Amino acid sequence: YEELQPALMAAREEMLKDIELLGSDAIPADKQPLDAGFQNLPQQLLDEYESQGSESLLGRIEAKAQELREQSDRFVVLGIGGSYMGMRALFEALCHPLHNELTRDQRGGVPRLYFEGNNVDNDSITALQELLKTSCLDPKDVLQRWSMTVISKSGGTLETALGFRLFRESLDAYYGADSEESRSLVVPITGLEGKLRNFSNHKGYPEVFPIPDNVGGRFSVFTSVGLFPAAVLGIDLKALLQGAADMTRLFNSQPMGDNPVLDYTATCHLFEREKNVSMRILSTWGKRLEALGLWYDQLLAESLGKEEKGATPLTVVNTRDLHSRGQQHQEGVRDKLITNVIVERPDSEPISVPVVPEEENQDQLNKLKGKTVPDVLSAAIEGTNQAYADVHRPTADLILPNLDAYTVGQTLQMLMLATVLEGRLININPYGQPGVEAYKKNMQEVLSR
Ligand code: PA5
């Protein structure tokens, strides 16, 4: 661990230097550390809000989000990859687990949420179109109104572009073709140029949010990509960004041992280098963390899976997956590092195990008298870690005091910083995804036949 310190410090220096180089006139555009902008962005957005208030990007995001909240009861988010996974992680971690089932009042006046444009799935597209058609009959009634955002940095991603065309047709059919009303219910989020930007200019959508050039797709959760839909759902953007900004500060300044980014990266890297541990299991203890894990799967796989290098990520949700993958993690190939993500306090009151009359105690659960559901979960975590330790299988714990916007902001930023840092350590450019282009090129060729 000590031996790795100079290499880690050098990698961190490189990342700090990336920020200085960004936007520097002395560096030609093609030599800029293109996607490093995510590192300082959370603090920049907070500062801009502090000085410019409603004129700032955050101010504009909050204003448009409030308009959509008041104007619609269903909200469709179109996007794929980095333009989708981050928002899904925020939604599942920070909104009510049964959000779409609640009444508008129970949801705090925010709309239901649907994701599309993230696949080419006829049944799924049809299902949402039919749901909107049959549950929205009177465009004057807010409970029967819907709105959407389309997110694509490049503007050229087929899945999202196709979804946009299809759902735009539905929206126009409902509110009147190309009416001012239908335009005000569509919010494009895109890069500074590209097909979606051009189309948005042509259509004259009243609000189009930008994705900065220097933030790559899977690092974009704290740009408009994640922030705007999160704001529509009433998620506390300032707390989210504060968590991320504080994590960057910690990373930039603290030594190993007090620095979660350095410590996590060192642990993962050393196990891979010294013990051929190339599977990274993110073992989430709670259903609300599943999408965060899937977001991380994409982040690690797309950033470091290059030049025949890079660990393979896999998210599990426990205790559920102890009953599916647990066997392999306990006794399979010794190629896994298990990182537990543990939330110390649930949002809801701990449920006590009910005690029943002795004659009904066939399930033998009366012995849990005085215990709560979180106590049972803690026992499962301890028992599982012990079982792995007994057979010398490595585990690490990432502990979140609770699941709120601040801790989720910290966690996402920590994992993004760690991914780039590890890229520097193994000499892989974490930005870009040249390997994804192959399927796209072939698909376009097939379609043009
Ligand atoms: O991480 C990435 O850059 C990718 O996963 C992209 O986010 C994804 O391909 C979607 O791209 P776009 O936002 O340009 O539609």
TrEMBL record:
GO molecular function: carbohydrate derivative binding; glucose-6-phosphate isomerase activity; monosaccharide binding
InterPro entries recorded: G6P_Isomerase, Phosphoglucose_isomerase_CS, SIS_dom_sf, SIS_PGI_1, SIS_PGI_2
GO-annotated biological processes: gluconeogenesis; glucose 6-phosphate metabolic process; glycolytic process
Enzyme Commission (EC) number: 5.3.1.9
GO cellular component: cytosol
Domain of life, per lineage: Bacteria
Keyword Transcription regulation listed: no
PROSITE patterns given in the database record: P_GLUCOSE_ISOMERASE_1, P_GLUCOSE_ISOMERASE_3
Keywords from the named record: Cytoplasm, Gluconeogenesis, Glycolysis, Isomerase
Signal sequence, start to end: none
Reaction(s) this enzyme catalyzes, per UniProt: alpha-D-glucose 6-phosphate = beta-D-fructose 6-phosphate
PANTHER family: GLUCOSE-6-PHOSPHATE ISOMERASE (PTHR11469:SF1)
Entry's family note: Belongs to the GPI family.
Protein name listed in UniProt: Glucose-6-phosphate isomerase
Species per Swiss-Prot/TrEMBL record: Gimesia chilikensis
